[in-house]
Amino acid sequence: MAVAAPGQLNLDESPAWGSRSVDCFEKLEQIGEGTYGQVFMAREIRTGEIVALKKIRMDNEREGFPITAIREIKILKKLHHDNVIKLKEIVTSPGPERDDHGKIDGNKYKGSIYMVFEYMDHDLTGLSDRPGMRFTVPQIKCYMRQLLTGLHYCHVNQVLHRDIKGSNLLIDNEGNLKLADFGLARSFSNDHNGNLTNRVITLWYRPPELLLGTTKYGPAVDMWSVGCIFAELLHGKPILPGKNEPEQLNKIFELCGAPDEVNWPGVSKIPWYNNFKPSRPMKRRVRETYKHFDRHALELLERMLTLDPSQRISAKDALDAEYFWTDPLPCDPKRFDIHEFSIYASSRSCMEG
Ligand code: AMP
């Protein structure tokens, strides 16, 4: 196996990874701000191919290469699927980099490391936030099917995403949807379901079991987030926009009812249940709140927004739901109206940390 030169990454299976310089790419513009650094649109000089470069910021790192980046790279190296963003390679910049004003950038002397991804034109939040944008039912079915297919693939490969939300669902002008940002993802094993980090998943998409403090969880956490996105696509805006954890739980209880030992056996043993359990009875109102949704959509949504994670529908079963097999059928991504999407060069949610 090739030995990495100083400042380069040596990733076991592909010795070539980490051996090229970022100078093989021309940065075109900054398109995002991720968990640990900026994201740029760039052109590979030799081939002209457009890619996304995600810079791994090391200036705050006392302990060397960030563990979240190591996790993301390790996980993405083993995932190969049409609905999961493709990590093409890792490139490095050996010396200090300068910003547009000639100032030495962030991590002064250590150099930088970039992840090179296939480029995607939009993210789902950016696309749906466009003024006047309303997806058609076949488009929603098409996106949902791709989201579930990608997630099913992750779950079968024992990977939890743990940050499913619109800005992490990237979309190209051909209508393809890919899961991205695996910075919070981790591997899990079916037989050892315990002691995972509790504070994961962006608040609005976080399931009740995490808000109640569990550290024992599995793929069902991602399925709650999928339910929130599904309802958001149909409703036109986020359905559970809490400002803090107690408010988030309260919004969930108002919509899904209060959890108890009848609808969620074992809930009273979850660490913070007694602190947060509502003092008054609250009944489930999913059906009445979304009575204007089509019958099959509502049936599927009910099964995604199920309080008890052990009863929540899996990605695999969701793909078999009537919703995807009844008229109007999901459209073929290839038949999306590309021109409608291309009016603007791209649409992304505003840059967030
Ligand atoms: P991330 O840290 O992966 O969440 O990236 C932050 C933002 O950068 C995303 O919300 C996207 O808008 C953008 N971005 C990330 N990866 C890509 C990509 N492969 N193609 C285009 N834009 C991307």
Description:
With 353 residues, the protein is an alpha+beta fold. The chain folds into two domains: 3-118, Phosphorylase Kinase, domain 1 (2-Layer Sandwich), CATH 3.30.200; 122-343, Transferase(Phosphotransferase), domain 1 (Orthogonal Bundle). It has helices at residues 67-78, 124-128, 137-156, 208-211, 220-235, 245-256, 273-276, 286-289, 295-304, 315-319, 338-342; strands at residues 20-21, 25-34, 37-44, 50-56, 87-93, 112-118, 122-123, 159-160, 169-171, 177-179, 186-187. The strands form three sheets. The chain has a six-stranded mixed sheet, covered by helices on one side. It has a three-stranded antiparallel sheet with strand order 7-9-10. A hairpin with a 2-residue loop joins strand 2 (25-34) and strand 3 (37-44). The protein is globular. The model is unreliable at 9-13 (pLDDT under 50). The chain binds adenosine monophosphate (AMP). Adenosine monophosphate binds at residues 31-32, 34-35, 39, 52, 85, 117-120, 123, 167-168, 170, 180-181, 348. Belongs to the protein kinase superfamily. CMGC Ser/Thr protein kinase family. CDC2/CDKX subfamily. It comes from Coptis chinensis. GO terms for molecular function: ATP binding; cyclin-dependent protein serine/threonine kinase activity; RNA polymerase II CTD heptapeptide repeat kinase activity. This is Protein kinase domain-containing protein.
